[in-house]
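tool=predict chain=A
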Amino acid sequence: MSQPWHPDRLAARLPFLHRRNLMLAATRAFFAARGYTEVETPYAVPTPGEEVHLHPYRLEPSGLYLHTSPEFAMKKLLAGGAGKIFQLARVWRHERTSPSHATEFTMLEWYAPGATMDDLIAEVCDYLAAILPPVFTYAGHDISLAAANRLTVAEAFTRFVNADLLATAANAPALAAASGATLRPGETWEDLFFRLLLALVEPNIGHPGPTFLTHWPAAQAALARRDPDDPRVAERFELYIAGLELANAFVELTDAAEQRARFVEDRARRAALGGPSWPLDEDFLEAVGNMPPCAGIALGFDRLVMLATGATSIADVTWLG
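tool=predict ok
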């Protein structure tokens, strides 16, 4: 929730905001130099997404929703032949606020036709080098961009949870037994996976350099394609730096039938949890089958500014927050 406006509050955050503007300019210059086109897509949409645990804001009386990501719209542009595109979009998610979470924030999203996961990771490293100091301190961690590292989710669970994650897929009691955790009443495999990830994995990654957490279990593929070499996992990665989850990226699924099946399953799960319903985006599903092979990423720009400035709250890097 926004705090009452006061000139002293704005004065305290102005140095952070000036740095934010420089980073916005540097971001646009970075992508322009690489042949990307900046795009703008609608914020009010009939279908805000299909992720089970993201809760959108509904606009009355139109019945439209504030989007939780520009992903669907940008993929329609890809299917239309837009080529390499990026967007700095305002997005909205109805969730609990915290120093690193806001209900309205800025997302940097970009898509590179023909790119592999390795290509995208390399480009993210180049972008971080263009936008952040090579060495900085955040939340008590000394961070060096040169120390960037990669870790699969399965490797992370072996190292920090002492569990064979892929051997327990979809089996909550097996994952609980392997990890030494007590399974809570009604807790699913997905629930336990995220509980262990948050408690035991995330605190141990993202320092002394950025960590790219790759190859997520197929159940967590979202809109990523399965790895052709190991269908138990998806070509997805998340980026962590100094305790902050900064980005989520996919080698994009371009199989419309598989995407539809995933959406049907997600909608059933959301309904079982008492979540809202909205029309299935048939236009998007048609676009998926016409997309070129590509990789894409959504990055929390406000959190990036926090890293660059040392700000401890997302409100400190927004003009009115």
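The first strand starts at residue 37 and ends at 38. The mean pLDDT is 95.
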